[in-house]
Design goal:
A: globular; disordered C terminus; B: 126 residues; alpha+beta; 3 strands; 13% strand; globular; disordered N terminus
């Protein structure tokens, strides 16, 4: 039988890790059973994933049920004020922009963008906290490494990505001292709904540098094609936010 | 997702929690094992969809009717095991009793002519 007495592992995993690990185990076990039924390993894995269905949706449902994710409604109401969010967002943006030595015009433009976003979205308490802890990833210049990462991260700095091929952005974020579950991604200037990534998935988000002659960071926000790839050029920001 | 051609009966609304609680009465199980146990015990008739199973497990933990802890699966993988709590046992007992009464009543109606069973206590809630 499948039940085994649990051996206390003492793992202090986040809720996000917990759910993802549960799902992965389920898919693995299902795939093993399908292999025993005669499918090839690849076919069994694919079939197991198909049967499992939309992991993202299941994940959200679990998050809603999980006690860690329940938010006091009163606190949410209080902290949901656009004033708080806007103030926090602008303060962080000021820091980010000055650190990145942006021009005043770029700064004003991005402040305006962020102001508009905060007005429209009325960023809630979690988002406000997220903005306060935001980090920025920018394409580098000839003087800098291909990608410069700074902000409220343990290890800000310049990171050399390969000149060709791909490198998962999660590796970059880990290099900065963050964990995957701590971040989500938002792209500025806004490119519409597709550019706003609410949640981070390591397998769905990659950074690619095309080459020394055309330095460009491409962020593929959804490996399944639900979102188009985003090409980032100098002066554009990817703000990596702690996930909700 | 269930295929349109799948003729297995849907799990009646409100009974998934009951099935899960019953599945873990004899010991801790992880999610996949719970789904398999329900399938096996129902003779393959009841398939618990993952989209319902895991939210239900997390809900039952929130309600303190299940307790969860990490351990090692039979394949030596990290797995989250669920066990029933005292509160879960109380709910299982109450819900199972209610379900049996409702089930018997429905069966009696379907069989035709049998006097309806008197409902006592709280009705089963879908």
């Amino acid at each position: 039988m499948d039940g085994v007495n649990p051996a206390a592992s003492g793992t202090q995993s986040s809720n996000r890790d917990t759910i993802a690990d549960e799902f992965e185990l389920h898919v693995q076990q299902c795939a093993e059973q399908l292999q025993k039924d005669g499918l090839s390993p690849a076919a069994a894995r694919a079939e197991a994933e198909r049967r499992f269905g939309d992991m993202t949706r299941h994940h959200e449902q679990c998050r809603r049920e999980a006690p860690e994710e329940r938010i006091n409604a009163k606190a949410r109401l209080i902290l949901r004020t656009a004033v708080i969010a806007q103030t926090a967002a602008i303060a962080v943006l000021v820091t980010l922009v000055w650190r990145q030595d942006h021009s005043i015009s770029d700064f004003r433009h991005e402040v305006d963008v962020l102001k508009a976003q905060t007005r429209v979205q009325a960023i809630d308490s979690q988002a406000a906290q997220a903005v306060q802890r935001a980090i920025a990833v920018t394409p580098g210049t000839e003087e800098l490494a291909p990608v410069h990462l700074e902000g409220a991260v343990p290890r800000p700095g310049a990171y050399n990505l390969p000149e060709s091929g791909s490198l998962k952005l999660d590796r970059l974020v880990r290099a900065a001292g963050l964990r995957d579950e701590q971040v989500s991604v938002r792209v500025l200037p806004s490119r519409g709904g597709d550019a706003v990534v609410q949640r981070w998935k390591a397998e769905g988000l990659a950074v690619r540098v095309d080459g020394p002659d055309a330095p460009c960071v491409e962020v593929t926000v959804d490996a399944k094609g639900a979102h188009p790839p985003l090409a980032l050029h100098g002066g554009e920001l990817v703000i990596v936010l702690p996930a909700k | 997702m269930r295929k349109p051609t799948d003729q297995r009966p849907e799990i009646p609304p409100g009974t998934l929690d009951l099935l899960i609680l019953q599945a873990v009465t004899r010991g801790s199980l992880h999610g996949y094992a719970i789904a398999r146990r329900i399938k096996e015990r129902s003779g393959g008739e009841l398939l618990v969809e993952e989209g319902s199973l895991y939210p239900a497990l997390h809900r039952l933990v929130r309600l303190k009717q299940l307790a969860a802890e990490w351990g090692t699966s039979e394949n030596n993988r990290r797995a989250r095991f669920y066990r029933i709590t005292t509160a879960g046992q109380k709910r299982l007992k109450a819900d199972a009793s209610a379900w049996r009464r409702v089930s018997a009543a429905v069966t009696a109606v379907l069989d035709g002519g049998a006097p309806a069973l008197e409902m006592r206590g709280p009705a089963w809630t879908a």
